[in-house]
Amino acid sequence: MASFQTSTLIYDATVWFCEKFIDFRSRTVDQMVQAARSGRQNIAEGSRASATSSQTELRLVNVARSSLEELLLDYEDFLRHRHLEQWEPGSPEALAVRHVPKQFKHDQSGRSDLTDLSDQERYALYAKWLDHENPEIRANALISLINQTNYLLDQQIAALEAQFVEEGGYSEQLATARLAERGRKKADGSMEQIPTCPNCDKPMVLRTARNGENAGKQFWGCSGYPECRGAVRI
Asked: Which end of the chain has the least Cβ crowding within 10 Å, N or C?
């Protein structure tokens, strides 16, 4: 996954950046390293969760996105506090970092991309910026990489939100299927058939009202709640 691989670059480079340019006694070191680590770890955990729950995956990817946004602000603060220049997104320097994957693919005659490389090989493509003696160049290169990763995560989040609204994740689909099966099979002759939602046709769940004039009374509520608020009185 491109977002995870780029976040690994960011994490490694942040550790070495802090070791070289920030006082180890500063709380900023721990904050930046932990933010970089959180971005990488939550992308990985979200990928593992994708097989069982899109809701969990979505939550973890959002955490990763927030962590990298925090790290982005730290690098911007580093430049501003030291009166160093921050590259414009469309500057030649920023574009050179951004176009590394495209340039690599061109050099390889389109036969490969960065996802096929080891972490060390991928880092080597960015080493002239990430290992530079000038902290201004290092920080700006990392800002470019963070913006790239955040763009990928924004696309992933939008896709996950659309998928979850449309069909739910694996665990949500199992719950719906289980409710539907229970509705088809009666344990005994007195068991009431589980109705389907009048709004979206999903199986309904027996619930108890907690508030209002019907508090304590049971009703059928849509299994798709809170996306769907369909209800049927008993």
From this structure: C
Place of tokens 């603060």: 77
Cβ atoms of 145 and 75 closer than 8 Å: no
3-state SS assignment for residue 8:
helix
Count how many residues are written for the chain: 234
Higher pLDDT, 161 or 73: 73
Report the run of H or E that residue 206 belongs to, with start and end.
strand 204-208
d(CA 206, CA 225): 12
220 three-state secondary structure:
strand
Q: In DSSP terms, which residues pair with 196 in a beta bridge?
A: 203
Residue 190: pLDDT band (50, 70, 90) is: very low
Query: CA of 126: how far to CAs of 86, 98, 133, in Å?
Result: 18, 10, 14
The rounded distance, in Å, linking the Cα atoms of 87 and 106 is 25
pLDDT score of 129 more than 70: yes
pLDDT digits (tens, 9 = 90+) for 135-164: 999 999 999 999 999 999 999 998 888 776
In the chain, what are the domain boundaries? 2-168, 188-233
Quote the pTM value.
0.70
CB atoms under 10 Å from CB of 32, counted, come to: 23
What φ, ψ does residue 205 adopt, rounded to 5°? -120, 140
The distance between the two most distant Cα atoms of the chain, rounded to a whole number of Å, is: 79
